[in-house]
Amino acid sequence: MSIVLLMAGATQTLSAQTESQPEKTRAQLKAEQEALDQLYFEEARQAIEERKFILEADQVVFKTGTIAFVSPTTNFVSLDVDNAVVQVAFNIPIGGPNGLGGVTVAGRCSNYKQSVDKRGNIMLSMDVLGNGITAQVYINLPNGTNEATVTIAPTFNSNRFTLNGVLLPLKKANVYKATPL
Question: From 1.10.260.40, 3.40.50.880, 2.40.128.410, 3.90.1580.10, which CATH number describes the 42-172 domain?
Answer without folding.
Answer: 2.40.128.410
